[in-house]
Amino acid sequence: MDCNALIEEERDLIKELNWKMKAARLMKFQQVKQQWAMEGDKDSKLFHAWIKKKRLQNHISSIKNPSGQIEEGKGNVAQVMVDYFQDLLGKTKKTEDIVLP
């Protein structure tokens, strides 16, 4: 086999692998969806895993402060947020009157 034929065969195999991996992910997703439909929010392992995942997704572990530095830890993240909103809400913004025709 020449070099081009090997490259082409490798491309085909990579495409096939990607297709099979996508099919496997979709099948797993459907299985989980079916299991969720059957078990719902019962006190199951699936339910607790789902809640744990959601809790981790909703957690802010780090944030950039106004000077561009990364702040980590609950206390530091909270302080950056408090400072931001105090600054934002503590200012008055000039507005214009709306003139109706």
Overall helicity: 55-70%
- Cα-based radius of gyration, to the nearest Å: 26 Å
**What is the spatial order of strands in the main beta sheet?**
1-2
Main structural class: mainly alpha
- The amount of beta strand, in percent, is 5-15%
Apparent shape: extended
Query: What kind of sheet is the major sheet?
Result: 2 strands, antiparallel
Number of distinct beta strands: 2
SS field, number of helical segments: 3
User: Overall mean pLDDT score?
Assistant: 85
Unreliable sequence segments? none
Which H/E pattern describes the elements?
A: HHEEH
- Kindly report how far apart the N and C termini lie: 80 Å
List descriptors.
two-stranded antiparallel ribbon; extended; 101 residues; mainly alpha; 6% strand
How would you describe this structure to a colleague?
The protein is built from three helices and two strands. A two-stranded antiparallel sheet has the order 1-2. It has a domain at 1-42. It has helices at 3-39, 45-57, 74-89, and strands at residues 62-64, 70-72. The model has no long low-confidence stretch (mean pLDDT 85). It has 101 residues and is mostly helical.
